[in-house]
From TrEMBL:
Organism of provenance: Fusarium flagelliforme
Region called Disordered, residue ranges: 404-424
Domain of life: Eukaryota
Catalytic activity: (R)-lactate + 2 Fe(III)-[cytochrome c] = 2 Fe(II)-[cytochrome c] + pyruvate + 2 H(+)
Protein name (Swiss-Prot/TrEMBL): D-lactate dehydrogenase (cytochrome)
Length: 1052
């Protein structure tokens, strides 16, 4: 905890020495009187001095509420330098501090056990001032006071204190007295001191209770300007982060105290505009501690609004679970302050009352809070409160099942009542509750003495170190002076807590928990009076309403619960990823532990390769590429699951990558994060020849798969571009040249093994050729482009390779003639295996690029493929097609059945894209490949429309496509400064296709490029339904986020 050059004991010796010498050197001088200003309200009054030459800035609460502005003056000495050294004060200087080694032990306990979860202090600045002897005496005493709550009991015994309560009371008294007399500390130090002193939970009737201290800290911070944005200030970044850290720590405690006690909040959400706290603002803290604090801010912001959706609350609550679990891997429960138990309690409540909880209610609640229950189990040996909370939840879960049917019947029998305003009176609530008799044998009541280091409750004060709502509510004093009892299941107090089940678990109202479940509980079984109308949480009800609990049941669901089946873009929450360097670095260490360092890459060339390509339609160059932070190469489903658990816990975005041949920007890592490359998952896991199926990993290419299948006389029909892998083919739902006879990827996938966003592994179905069991999740994931889950295995259907095949090539004077010939061939019922179209521009590019050995006629050309059980059938089909093409002015018709000749003829189609790339006039020229599909009857019209538009644009472009199913492509070649021209061509072609009842993409998928066309094609409601589905599978939007459908509004 000390400077590297000095041990802990030396620090306090140096500090005391510096203070002593400074005090001796001080000389008296004439005091000056400065005017003072009294604060806004009596319970948060303060005095402050302005910045004038020779005077320091001071802030302190007024000692007695009877003081007036005329009574209060502040004095300073013109030659004083309050930051030069510690000064002994009139009443309480440094002489009465504990011995230096005890002070060091207390400071160590503060930073080890309290600061980790409440990092309001700047650790580096504090230790620097401590070492130099310039630390604020008041702040030092406040730190020691808080440390006494968390240090080992042995330290307090060495201070001469018999109990923790005695030690805490003494240190608080000393710090409070120092606060009153302090005229030298800076305003920031006084804010921090006041904040720390609010952890005093002494006599509830005391004037200076925790509310007084926290309000004083907040009001002083507001006067200093901590509630204002620093965006336009000249502060260095480090000071801005400290500014935000102080404000949000104050905010969190204000919300926690107000919500848990039912008292008004000091901070008005309309009165501050400081930027939100982010992990980078806590760069000097461990990543888990920083994430914990950010999650606490989000949780407390979210629960304070009645109408806000529950997703932010649930995300924050889940983050608390993640941090606790991660911390327990490195720390023992003894190192955790009890604030962690309180955080678990809040998180479990937020999850348990989620409005999505379905029947059976007990099972659903248990599933959501199970992680919290397991963590509490580990805390039980240290904190008895953890045992009580765990038993409380288990009892609630059991009761939920017992009373579920009764609640459903009551709700069904109650007519709908429109909300008309009103307030809730605790008396009405209690009179409406039936008496609940629990099973004593199933409930454990821990006993605690005053010496127990976990509670420290003084029965005479009815509080000790507990806030009033806990001392007088959740716990009932036995008045024996040496023990405390928890409320039993048949007690009145426990009945009040069980309101949670009646009002909250049924309707999913998160924030009612604190006010109805805790604030209404009073001492000796009575209910305290709460001014409900003052709380912003109950602004829905007017002051004079006296509804019964049955009326509340009717009103609440209609007032707060969303019943929408879809999710609009406007109602979608902000995407919240954490790609900070510290988080990524910590994640990389975890990745390496799972995969091995050789399977984790941050090489720049590797990052660029995985960031995009020249032949995709999304604008990309190596110079402007947005790269992932790291590439990972898993080899098993289990490894992918562990990777996703890490990314889910750390909120790191994930981009899947298989062959890298997608065209519409599917693997562009525009949120950065990590890229999961499946190229090392390339095995054929299982081949079932008799069943005509196989199980493969996503990193195997379709061409490689067919090579392995060929000796068995089998093949996998979908045949997109060379280099495509099964994972990407599943993701885009692609097809290929065989689509006319064999269909698309959706027709050839039996089952998928998928890793979801949180690391859960699911299998969509069994291997049976048909099944009507449940939802068709297989087809849900096909075409989802990695936005719903990561495919780690696919069970594919296989086909028997036809024994006889033939290829025919015929040319036409115009594209319309060629397209019309295709329409008539298919209308005649002739079964062709494939039919492809290439226009004259494409044929010329194939000739110029010399990628084939044949010199082609540079005219619109059709390529037909025929297959059958014998040569006679194949030749008969070819003759029928030849006759139809002649009717459409075919100028040539070439037929080949020899395998080498077939492959040579068909090679022109397979090299279409590469031949266009070879036509680039400049290395910086781009190729835009896009596709649409229309009903077959409109195929000639859309092709002619696209062809004319390309010719008018002045760009070099060709028409290519699988016209056998109404799908065709355009390949556009252009310099970067003509990208807007290419965009216009694509936009008009897509609009025309949709106008013709077609689709914006036949097989390339949506990615980043075509997502904005979905609303026009499918309607806003359908897209909103898709967004709702995306949110269900991936609530944090970490999987290929913002692709297929937008999850955040487009930037202007």
């Amino acid at each position: 905890m000390a400077s590297p050059s000095r041990g802990p004991e030396q620090i306090m010796h140096v500090t005391l020495g510096a203070a002593s010498s400074s005090a001796q050197a001080s000389s008296p001088s004439q005091p000056l009187t400065q005017p003072s200003v009294v604060g806004e309200s009596w319970y948060a009054s303060y005095v402050m001095r302005g910045y004038t030459p020779g005077h320091s800035s001071v802030h302190r609460p007024i000692g007695d509420c009877s003081e007036t502005v005329q009574d209060v003056t502040c004095t300073t000495r013109t030659n004083d330098n309050p930051r030069s050294a510690l000064k002994r004060q009139d009443k309480a200087g440094l002489s009465d501090l504990p011995r230096p080694e005890l002070v060091d032990a207390l400071i160590e306990a503060y930073f080890d056990r309290f600061h980790t979860f409440c990092p309001i202090l700047d650790k580096k600045a504090f230790f620097t001032s401590l070492h130099e002897g310039t630390v604020s005496v008041t702040l030092l005493r406040s730190v020691l006071f808080v440390a006494s709550l968390h240090c080992d009991l042995e330290v307090l015994h060495r201070m001469g204190q018999s109990t923790r309560l005695d030690a805490n009371h003494k240190l608080f008294t000393d710090a409070s007295a120092s606060f009153d007399m302090d005229r030298d500390s800076s305003r920031v130090d006084m804010i921090l001191s006041s904040y720390l002193l609010h952890y005093w939970f002494g006599n509830p009737t005391a004037y200076r209770d925790c509310h007084w201290w926290i309000a004083a800290a907040i009001r002083s911070a507001q006067c200093t300007g901590y509630h204002r944005s620093t965006a336009n200030s000249q502060m260095p970044s480090e000071q801005r982060s400290r500014w935000k850290r102080i404000w949000w720590c104050l905010y969190v405690r204000d919300r926690q105290i107000a919500i848990s006690t039912g008292t008004p909040m000091v901070i008005n959400d309309m009165d501050y505009d400081v930027e939100e706290l982010v992990v980078e603002d806590l760069a000097d803290e461990p990543i888990e501690a920083a994430q914990y604090m950010v999650a606490q801010v989000k949780l407390n912001k979210a629960v304070c609004y009645q109408s806000r959706e529950t997703k932010p609350v649930l995300d924050a609550a889940t983050k608390i679970f993640d941090l606790v679990e991660n911390s327990l891997l490195y720390w023992t429960p003894e190192h955790f302050p009890m604030i962690y138990v309180s955080a678990l309690f809040s998180a479990m409540m937020a999850l348990a009352v989620d409005g999505n909880t379905a029947v059976p209610k007990g099972d659903q609640i248990f599933g959501k809070i199970r992680r919290g229950l397991l963590a509490l189990k580990q805390f039980e040996p240290v904190y008895n409160l953890a045992r009580w909370i765990r038993n409380f939840f288990m009892d609630i879960i059991k009761r939920s099942e017992q009373e579920g049917r009764a609640h459903e019947q009551e709700r069904a029998a109650s007519p709908h009542v429109e909300p008309s305003g009103g307030s809730i009176h605790p008396e009405e609530v209690t009179h409406s509750l039936p008496v609940i008799h629990g099973d004593p044998a199933s409930y454990t009541t821990p006993g605690m003495g005053l010496e127990d280091t976990t509670f420290m409750i003084d029965s005479e004060d009815a509080a000790g170190f507990w806030p009033e709502y806990m001392a007088n509510g959740v716990f009932s004093s036995t008045h024996s002076g040496d023990a405390m009892d928890f409320p039993q299941p048949d007690s009145t107090q426990y009945q009040a807590i069980f309101i949670i089940d009646v009002l909250l678990f049924e309707h999913g109202l998160i924030v009612w928990l604190y006010l109805l479940g805790l604030a209404t509980i009073g001492a000796a079984g009575s209910f305290s009076t709460v001014d409900w109308s003052r709380s912003t949480l109950f602004n829905y009800f007017s002051v004079d309403d006296t509804r019964s609990i049955e009326d509340i049941r009717k009103i609440v669901p209609h007032a707060t619960r969303s019943r929408s089946s879809t999710q609009s873009l406007e109602s979608t929450g902000k995407i919240d990823h954490d790609t900070s360097p510290a988080n990524i670095l910590a994640a990389c260490k975890e990745f390496a532990a799972i995969l091995g360092p050789e399977n984790v890459s941050t090489d720049q060339a590797d990052l660029i390769t995985h960031s995009g390509s020249d032949y995709q339609s999304y604008a990309w160059t190596e110079e402007t590429a947005v790269c992932s932070h790291v590439i990972v190469y898993p080899e098993t489903t289990e490894q992918v699951s562990e990777l996703m658990k890490i990314c889910s816990r750390r909120q790191i975005p994930v981009t899947p990558y298989s062959g890298g041949t997608s065209i519409e920007g599917q693997y562009i890592p525009h949120f950065q994060g990590i890229c999961v490359d499946f190229s090392r998952m390339s095995r054929v896991v299982e081949l079932n020849k008799d069943d005509l199926d196989c199980v493969v990993q996503p990193g195997i290419g379709w061409m490689d798969l067919n090579e392995e299948l060929a000796p068995h006389g089998l093949f996998f029909p979908p045949d997109p571009g060379p280099g495509a892998m099964i994972g990407g083919m599943v993701g885009t739902g692609c097809s290929g040249t065989n689509a006319a006879a064999y269909g698309t990827m959706k027709d050839w996938v039996l089952s998928l093994t998928v890793v979801l966003a949180d690391g859960t592994i699911i299998k969509t179905r069994q291997r049976a050729r048909k099944s009507s069991a449940g939802y068709d999740l297989t087809r849900t994931f096909i075409g989802s482009e990695g936005t719903l889950g990561l495919v780690t295995e696919a069970t594919l259907k296989l086909a028997v390779k036809p024994p006889c095949e033939a290829v025919a090539v015929c040319t036409f004077p115009s594209l319309r003639d060629a397209a019309s010939a295709v329409r008539d061939v298919l209308s005649a019922g002739i079964q062709v295996a494939a039919v492809e179209i290439l226009d004259e521009v494409q044929m010329k590019s194939i000739n110029d690029s010399a990628l084939t050995t044949i010199k082609w006629k540079e005219e619109p050309t059709l390529f037909f493929k025929f297959s059958g059980s014998d040569d006679f059938i194949v030749q008969h089909l070819a003759k029928q097609v030849g006759g139809i093409t002649k009717q459409h002015r075919s100028t040539a018709y070439t037929f080949a059945s020899d395998e080498n000749e077939r492959n040579e003829l068909w090679s022109a189609r397979k090299n279409a894209l590469w031949s266009m790339i070879a036509m680039k006039k400049s290395p910086t020229d781009k190729v835009w490949t896009t596709d649409v599909a229309v009903p077959m009857s409109r195929l000639p019209d859309i092709i002619e429309f696209a062809k004319n538009d390309i010719e008018k644009s002045g760009l070099l472009g060709s028409i290519v496509g699988h016209v056998g199913d109404g799908n065709f492509h355009t390949l556009l070649l252009f310099p970067e400064d003509k990208r807007h021209v290419a965009e216009g061509i694509v936009h008009r072609m897509v609009d025309k296709a949709i106008e013709m009842k077609g689709t914006a993409t036949g097989e390339h998928g949506v990615g980043l490029v075509k997502r904005d066309y979905l609303e026009k094609e499918l309607g806003k409601e359908t897209v909103d339904a898709m967004r709702s589905m995306k949110n269900a599978f991936d609530p944090m939007c970490i999987l290929n986020c913002d692709k297929v459908i937008r999850m955040q509004a487009a930037k202007e």
